[in-house]
Amino acid sequence: MSRLVAVVDYGMCNLDSVRRALEEVGGRVVVTDQTADVEAADVIVLPGVGAFPDAMRNVRDRDLDKVLEDQVVGEGAPFLGICLGMQLLATVGYEGRQTPGLGWIDGEVRRLVPAGADRRIPHVGWNEVNAADGSPLFAGIEPGSDFYFVHSYHLACDVTDDIAATTPYCGGFASAVSRGNVHAVQFHPEKSQRNGLRLLQNVLAL
Q1: Which of 111, 137, 153, 188 lies at a 20 to 30 A Cα distance from 124?
Q2: Interatomic CA distance for residues 41 and 152, integer angstroms
Q3: Average pLDDT, stretch 34-60?
Q4: Can you say whether the dihedral through the CA atoms of 45, 65, 129, 189 is positive or negative?
């Protein structure tokens, strides 16, 4: 039987493409902001596009921080954050104003800093992702494969071991993180064609 995936809806993303991509790799998907759906899921996905403070307000207003903490941190449910969903895992974000994050990954969300005249912000388009050896997220994916990015901020990790992949843009940044059952990517796997689908397939196998 395919695994049940809860795609968490906190009002900050068009979720159709995420849902379709997960269904394409065999997931049974429910897009939801309901506690019972998250509790019932085998895998939890937190996508997102937009501003860090708005996202954290929405997550907390819907009491999603509590059920996510219970299921992911407490019960060990496999978890994937995507784009803004990766940044929300940080201790704190500095987009607009200082805002506490979920605190699952030690670090800060800061604006990308151009490393040269050719580095534009936001970072939009395809770029290479260099995975750490043995990362389960990137099993079966060629080293240095390209994925699709759209972002101006990044998660600066305090703990090097949490970094699952890096991308050489604006001096380099963490483009994926992993800690136990918690995984997240700064790029959009649902927009990254074959490599993105393989990564989502890997998540369903965690």
Answers
A1: 137
A2: 31
A3: 96
A4: positive
Q: Is 190 a residue of the active site?
A: yes
> Domain span at residue 78?
4-204
Give me the catalytic one of 13, 83, 157, 170: 83
The reported pLDDT for the residue numbered 13 is: 79
pLDDT at residue 118 tops 90: no
Q: What is the mean pLDDT of the chain?
A: 95
Q: What pLDDT does residue 71 have? A: 98
Sign of torsion over alpha carbons 32, 36, 37, 42: positive
**Number of structural domains, the chain?**
1
**Residue 160 structure tokens:** 């090097």
Catalytic residue, from 123, 154, 183, 188: name it. Answer: 188
CATH label of the domain that carries residue 48: 3.40.50.880
Cα–Cα distance, 35 to 135 (Å, whole number) = 30
Active site residue 39: no
- State yes or no: is 188 an active-site residue: yes
